[in-house]
Amino acid sequence: MRTGNSHGGLLVVPYNVYPVQDGGVAILAVSDQHWLALGDVLEYPDLVTDPRFVDKSSRVKNRAALDARIGELTIKFTKQMLFDRLVAARVPSAPVRSLDEVINDEHLHARGMLKWTEHPVYGRMLAMGSPLRFQRLCRPAKALPATSLALTAERFSHSWQASKAPGLTNWREPVHLERNEMGSNSQLQEAAECGVEATYFAALSQGKLMIQRCADCKRAIFYPRQFCPHCDNETLTWEQASGAGTVHSVTTLRTKPDRPYNISLVDLDEGVRMMGRVDGIAPDEVKIGMRVHARIIEQGGKPLVVFLTSPEAA
Questions:
Q1: Which DSSP category does 142 fall into?
Q2: In the prediction, which pLDDT does 150 show?
Protein backbone atom coordinates (compact mmCIF):
# COMPACT_ATOMS: atom_id res chain seq x y z
CA MET A 1 0.00 0.00 0.00
CA ARG A 2 1.32 3.44 -0.90
CA THR A 3 1.58 5.74 2.10
CA GLY A 4 2.79 8.96 0.45
CA ASN A 5 4.67 11.13 2.93
CA SER A 6 3.34 9.18 5.90
CA HIS A 7 5.33 6.55 7.75
CA GLY A 8 5.90 3.47 5.59
CA GLY A 9 4.23 1.17 8.12
CA LEU A 10 1.67 3.79 9.22
CA LEU A 11 2.91 3.21 12.78
CA VAL A 12 4.15 6.73 13.59
CA VAL A 13 1.97 9.86 13.78
CA PRO A 14 2.60 12.71 13.25
CA TYR A 15 4.83 11.74 10.37
CA ASN A 16 3.99 13.82 7.31
CA VAL A 17 4.52 17.03 5.37
CA TYR A 18 2.41 19.84 6.78
CA PRO A 19 1.47 23.13 5.08
CA VAL A 20 3.01 26.50 5.95
CA GLN A 21 2.54 29.91 4.41
CA ASP A 22 5.28 29.43 1.82
CA GLY A 23 5.37 25.69 1.24
CA GLY A 24 5.62 22.66 3.49
CA VAL A 25 7.63 21.24 6.40
CA ALA A 26 8.13 17.55 7.16
CA ILE A 27 7.60 16.71 10.85
CA LEU A 28 8.57 13.27 12.15
CA ALA A 29 7.57 12.96 15.80
CA VAL A 30 8.97 9.48 16.32
CA SER A 31 9.12 9.45 20.12
CA ASP A 32 6.86 10.68 22.91
CA GLN A 33 9.43 13.38 23.68
CA HIS A 34 9.08 14.70 20.13
CA TRP A 35 5.30 14.65 20.46
CA LEU A 36 5.27 16.54 23.75
CA ALA A 37 7.68 19.16 22.39
CA LEU A 38 5.50 19.65 19.31
CA GLY A 39 2.68 21.16 21.37
CA ASP A 40 4.97 23.96 22.53
CA VAL A 41 6.42 24.48 19.07
CA LEU A 42 2.95 24.96 17.60
CA GLU A 43 1.92 27.15 20.55
CA TYR A 44 -0.99 24.85 21.33
CA PRO A 45 -0.22 22.68 24.39
CA ASP A 46 -3.79 21.34 24.43
CA LEU A 47 -2.90 19.32 21.35
CA VAL A 48 -0.87 16.79 23.32
CA THR A 49 -3.53 16.38 26.02
CA ASP A 50 -6.39 15.75 23.59
CA PRO A 51 -7.76 12.26 24.43
CA ARG A 52 -7.69 11.35 20.72
CA PHE A 53 -3.94 11.88 20.60
CA VAL A 54 -2.76 11.12 24.11
CA ASP A 55 -0.66 8.05 23.24
CA LYS A 56 0.88 6.42 20.18
CA SER A 57 -1.93 3.95 19.52
CA SER A 58 -4.53 6.74 19.76
CA ARG A 59 -2.58 8.93 17.37
CA VAL A 60 -2.29 6.09 14.85
CA LYS A 61 -6.00 5.35 15.14
CA ASN A 62 -6.90 9.03 14.62
CA ARG A 63 -4.23 9.75 12.01
CA ALA A 64 -6.42 11.71 9.63
CA ALA A 65 -7.85 13.96 12.36
CA LEU A 66 -4.39 14.60 13.83
CA ASP A 67 -2.79 15.44 10.47
CA ALA A 68 -5.65 17.85 9.72
CA ARG A 69 -5.32 19.55 13.13
CA ILE A 70 -1.56 19.94 12.85
CA GLY A 71 -2.02 21.43 9.38
CA GLU A 72 -4.37 24.02 10.84
CA LEU A 73 -1.67 24.99 13.35
CA THR A 74 1.36 24.98 11.04
CA ILE A 75 -0.21 27.20 8.38
CA LYS A 76 0.31 30.30 10.54
CA PHE A 77 4.12 29.88 10.27
CA THR A 78 6.55 30.45 7.44
CA LYS A 79 8.75 27.56 6.43
CA GLN A 80 11.93 28.90 7.99
CA MET A 81 10.17 30.09 11.15
CA LEU A 82 8.64 26.69 11.86
CA PHE A 83 11.81 24.81 10.97
CA ASP A 84 13.89 26.95 13.35
CA ARG A 85 11.43 26.28 16.18
CA LEU A 86 11.42 22.54 15.49
CA VAL A 87 15.21 22.41 15.45
CA ALA A 88 15.39 24.29 18.75
CA ALA A 89 12.94 21.78 20.27
CA ARG A 90 14.91 18.84 18.79
CA VAL A 91 11.95 17.55 16.80
CA PRO A 92 13.05 15.73 13.61
CA SER A 93 11.98 17.90 10.70
CA ALA A 94 12.97 19.33 7.33
CA PRO A 95 11.67 22.12 5.12
CA VAL A 96 10.44 21.01 1.70
CA ARG A 97 12.63 22.95 -0.70
CA SER A 98 11.86 23.99 -4.24
CA LEU A 99 14.23 23.03 -7.04
CA ASP A 100 15.51 26.60 -7.20
CA GLU A 101 16.23 26.56 -3.46
CA VAL A 102 18.10 23.26 -3.73
CA ILE A 103 20.37 24.18 -6.63
CA ASN A 104 21.30 27.49 -4.99
CA ASP A 105 21.72 26.18 -1.44
CA GLU A 106 24.88 27.75 -0.04
CA HIS A 107 25.64 24.78 2.21
CA LEU A 108 25.49 22.24 -0.65
CA HIS A 109 27.88 24.40 -2.68
CA ALA A 110 30.21 25.02 0.27
CA ARG A 111 30.47 21.27 0.94
CA GLY A 112 31.15 20.47 -2.72
CA MET A 113 27.92 18.55 -3.30
CA LEU A 114 26.89 21.03 -6.01
CA LYS A 115 29.13 23.03 -8.31
CA TRP A 116 28.55 25.25 -11.30
CA THR A 117 30.64 24.24 -14.30
CA GLU A 118 31.02 25.32 -17.92
CA HIS A 119 30.05 22.74 -20.54
CA PRO A 120 31.57 23.23 -24.03
CA VAL A 121 28.19 22.73 -25.72
CA TYR A 122 25.48 23.56 -23.19
CA GLY A 123 27.20 26.36 -21.29
CA ARG A 124 26.76 26.87 -17.56
CA MET A 125 25.52 23.67 -15.89
CA LEU A 126 25.11 22.36 -12.38
CA ALA A 127 27.26 19.34 -11.54
CA MET A 128 26.72 17.07 -8.54
CA GLY A 129 29.59 16.14 -6.27
CA SER A 130 30.26 12.80 -4.63
CA PRO A 131 28.94 12.05 -1.14
CA LEU A 132 32.03 9.92 -0.50
CA ARG A 133 34.59 11.32 1.93
CA PHE A 134 37.93 9.66 2.59
CA GLN A 135 40.21 9.68 5.60
CA ARG A 136 42.76 12.51 5.64
CA LEU A 137 41.02 14.30 2.76
CA CYS A 138 39.62 17.62 3.89
CA ARG A 139 37.54 18.15 0.76
CA PRO A 140 35.92 16.02 -1.95
CA ALA A 141 37.62 15.28 -5.25
CA LYS A 142 37.36 18.09 -7.73
CA ALA A 143 35.43 17.72 -10.97
CA LEU A 144 37.47 17.74 -14.17
CA PRO A 145 36.77 20.39 -16.79
CA ALA A 146 34.12 19.15 -19.21
CA THR A 147 35.01 18.35 -22.82
CA SER A 148 32.73 17.44 -25.66
CA LEU A 149 32.06 13.73 -26.21
CA ALA A 150 33.17 13.99 -29.83
CA LEU A 151 36.51 15.61 -28.90
CA THR A 152 37.18 13.07 -26.14
CA ALA A 153 36.36 10.16 -28.47
CA GLU A 154 38.60 11.54 -31.22
CA ARG A 155 41.56 12.03 -28.88
CA PHE A 156 41.17 8.63 -27.25
CA SER A 157 40.82 6.85 -30.59
CA HIS A 158 43.98 8.49 -31.90
CA SER A 159 46.07 7.60 -28.85
CA TRP A 160 44.64 4.07 -28.68
CA GLN A 161 45.41 3.35 -32.32
CA ALA A 162 48.95 4.55 -31.70
CA SER A 163 49.22 2.20 -28.72
CA LYS A 164 48.55 -0.81 -30.96
CA ALA A 165 51.81 -0.31 -32.87
CA PRO A 166 53.92 -3.50 -32.80
CA GLY A 167 57.38 -3.75 -31.35
CA LEU A 168 57.04 -2.81 -27.70
CA THR A 169 60.45 -1.79 -26.44
CA ASN A 170 62.43 -2.69 -23.34
CA TRP A 171 63.01 -0.32 -20.41
CA ARG A 172 64.08 3.18 -21.31
CA GLU A 173 65.59 6.03 -19.35
CA PRO A 174 63.26 7.53 -16.70
CA VAL A 175 60.94 10.16 -18.13
CA HIS A 176 59.25 12.77 -15.91
CA LEU A 177 55.99 14.03 -17.35
CA GLU A 178 53.87 16.86 -15.99
CA ARG A 179 50.16 16.90 -16.88
CA ASN A 180 50.66 20.17 -18.77
CA GLU A 181 54.33 19.78 -19.70
CA MET A 182 54.89 16.75 -21.91
CA GLY A 183 57.78 18.09 -23.95
CA SER A 184 57.98 16.87 -27.56
CA ASN A 185 56.18 13.57 -26.99
CA SER A 186 52.99 14.38 -28.91
CA GLN A 187 51.32 11.03 -28.21
CA LEU A 188 51.67 11.41 -24.45
CA GLN A 189 50.65 15.07 -24.66
CA GLU A 190 47.48 14.13 -26.52
CA ALA A 191 46.79 11.21 -24.18
CA ALA A 192 47.21 13.53 -21.19
CA GLU A 193 44.35 15.65 -22.46
CA CYS A 194 42.15 12.53 -22.26
CA GLY A 195 43.10 11.88 -18.63
CA VAL A 196 45.72 10.20 -16.49
CA GLU A 197 44.61 6.68 -17.39
CA ALA A 198 45.09 7.37 -21.10
CA THR A 199 48.52 8.82 -20.31
CA TYR A 200 49.47 5.67 -18.41
CA PHE A 201 48.45 3.32 -21.23
CA ALA A 202 50.06 5.49 -23.91
CA ALA A 203 53.36 5.29 -22.02
CA LEU A 204 52.86 1.55 -21.46
CA SER A 205 52.53 1.06 -25.21
CA GLN A 206 56.00 2.61 -25.56
CA GLY A 207 57.51 0.16 -23.09
CA LYS A 208 57.42 2.49 -20.10
CA LEU A 209 55.85 1.54 -16.78
CA MET A 210 54.98 4.94 -15.37
CA ILE A 211 53.87 5.78 -11.85
CA GLN A 212 53.04 9.13 -10.30
CA ARG A 213 54.62 10.99 -7.41
CA CYS A 214 53.07 13.73 -5.32
CA ALA A 215 54.99 17.01 -5.46
CA ASP A 216 53.89 17.79 -1.89
CA CYS A 217 54.12 14.64 0.26
CA LYS A 218 56.57 12.94 -2.18
CA ARG A 219 54.76 9.59 -1.98
CA ALA A 220 54.52 7.32 -5.01
CA ILE A 221 51.04 6.68 -6.44
CA PHE A 222 49.50 3.87 -8.45
CA TYR A 223 46.83 3.39 -10.03
CA PRO A 224 46.88 6.76 -11.92
CA ARG A 225 44.90 9.51 -10.21
CA GLN A 226 44.09 13.17 -10.64
CA PHE A 227 44.84 14.01 -7.00
CA CYS A 228 47.12 12.56 -4.35
CA PRO A 229 45.13 10.07 -2.22
CA HIS A 230 47.42 10.79 0.73
CA CYS A 231 47.31 14.60 0.97
CA ASP A 232 44.82 15.71 -1.75
CA ASN A 233 47.51 17.67 -3.59
CA GLU A 234 46.76 18.10 -7.29
CA THR A 235 50.33 18.47 -8.57
CA LEU A 236 51.49 14.99 -9.55
CA THR A 237 54.52 14.17 -11.66
CA TRP A 238 55.14 11.08 -13.76
CA GLU A 239 58.24 8.94 -13.44
CA GLN A 240 59.28 5.61 -14.86
CA ALA A 241 59.31 2.77 -12.36
CA SER A 242 62.29 0.44 -12.17
CA GLY A 243 59.92 -2.53 -12.42
CA ALA A 244 61.64 -4.33 -9.54
CA GLY A 245 59.48 -5.52 -6.68
CA THR A 246 58.51 -8.21 -4.18
CA VAL A 247 55.50 -10.52 -4.23
CA HIS A 248 53.13 -9.45 -1.44
CA SER A 249 50.47 -12.12 -1.99
CA VAL A 250 49.55 -14.72 -4.59
CA THR A 251 46.45 -16.68 -5.55
CA THR A 252 46.36 -19.58 -8.00
CA LEU A 253 43.21 -19.80 -10.12
CA ARG A 254 42.16 -23.12 -11.65
CA THR A 255 39.20 -22.14 -13.78
CA LYS A 256 40.64 -24.46 -16.43
CA PRO A 257 42.35 -27.46 -14.80
CA ASP A 258 44.88 -27.79 -17.60
CA ARG A 259 45.80 -24.08 -17.53
CA PRO A 260 46.04 -22.72 -13.96
CA TYR A 261 47.43 -19.23 -13.51
CA ASN A 262 48.32 -16.92 -10.66
CA ILE A 263 47.20 -13.44 -9.67
CA SER A 264 49.78 -11.68 -7.55
CA LEU A 265 50.07 -8.41 -5.69
CA VAL A 266 53.55 -7.00 -6.13
CA ASP A 267 55.11 -4.23 -4.03
CA LEU A 268 57.33 -2.20 -6.33
CA ASP A 269 60.52 -0.81 -4.84
CA GLU A 270 59.17 2.72 -5.38
CA GLY A 271 56.46 2.07 -2.77
CA VAL A 272 53.34 1.24 -4.76
CA ARG A 273 51.46 -2.04 -5.12
CA MET A 274 50.41 -3.53 -8.46
CA MET A 275 48.29 -6.50 -9.42
CA GLY A 276 49.54 -8.83 -12.14
CA ARG A 277 50.64 -12.34 -12.85
CA VAL A 278 54.10 -13.87 -12.51
CA ASP A 279 55.12 -15.61 -15.72
CA GLY A 280 57.93 -18.03 -16.47
CA ILE A 281 57.30 -20.44 -13.59
CA ALA A 282 54.45 -22.71 -12.52
CA PRO A 283 51.72 -20.83 -10.63
CA ASP A 284 52.25 -22.95 -7.50
CA GLU A 285 55.93 -21.97 -7.44
CA VAL A 286 55.22 -18.26 -6.96
CA LYS A 287 55.93 -17.47 -3.29
CA ILE A 288 55.32 -14.50 -1.04
CA GLY A 289 58.53 -12.50 -0.67
CA MET A 290 59.87 -13.59 -4.07
CA ARG A 291 61.76 -10.89 -5.97
CA VAL A 292 60.35 -10.15 -9.43
CA HIS A 293 60.73 -7.58 -12.17
CA ALA A 294 58.13 -6.19 -14.55
CA ARG A 295 57.94 -6.81 -18.25
CA ILE A 296 55.54 -5.25 -20.75
CA ILE A 297 54.01 -7.64 -23.25
CA GLU A 298 51.25 -7.35 -25.82
CA GLN A 299 48.14 -9.41 -25.23
CA GLY A 300 44.95 -9.11 -27.23
CA GLY A 301 46.35 -6.09 -29.01
CA LYS A 302 46.91 -4.22 -25.73
CA PRO A 303 50.01 -3.60 -23.59
CA LEU A 304 50.03 -5.63 -20.38
CA VAL A 305 52.38 -5.65 -17.37
CA VAL A 306 53.47 -9.09 -16.18
CA PHE A 307 56.26 -10.11 -13.83
CA LEU A 308 59.21 -12.45 -14.17
CA THR A 309 61.36 -13.85 -11.38
CA SER A 310 64.49 -11.81 -10.77
CA PRO A 311 67.93 -13.45 -10.83
CA GLU A 312 68.32 -12.96 -7.06
CA ALA A 313 65.15 -15.04 -6.56
CA ALA A 314 66.80 -18.13 -8.07
A1: P
A2: 60
Element (H, E) at 245: strand 244-253
CB under 8 Å, gap of 24 or more: what pairs does 223-232 form? 224/196, 224/197, 224/199, 224/200, 225/196, 226/141, 226/142, 226/144, 226/195, 226/196, 227/141, 227/142, 229/134, 229/137, 230/136, 231/136, 232/136, 232/137, 232/138, 232/139
- pLDDT of res. 143: 54
Kindly report which listed range (68-72, 101-105, 125-129, 207-211) carries the lowest average pLDDT score: 125-129
Each residue of 69-98: pLDDT tens digit?
999 999 999 999 999 999 999 999 999 999
pTM: 0.46
Written as one letter, the residue type at 204 is L
Half-sphere exposure of 95 (CA within 13 A, CB side): 20
**Strands (E) located in 51-184:** 93-95, 114-119, 123-128, 177-178
Q: How many C-beta atoms lie closer than 10 Å to residue 67's C-beta? A: 20
Instruction: Please report, to the nearest 10 degrees, the dihedral formed by the alpha carbons of residues 20, 22, 23, 26 taken in order.
Output: -50
> How far is residue 231 CA from its own chain's centroid?
16
pLDDT digits (tens, 9 = 90+) for 221-240: 999 998 898 888 888 999 99
* 3 state SS of 61: helix
- Comparing C-alpha atoms, which of 262, 218, 272, 205 is closest to residue 242? 272
Please, what is the end-to-end C-alpha distance for the chain in angstroms?
Answer: 70
Give 158 or 272, the one with higher predicted confidence.
Answer: 272
Per-residue CA distances from 178 to 151, 175, 220 (Å): 22, 10, 15
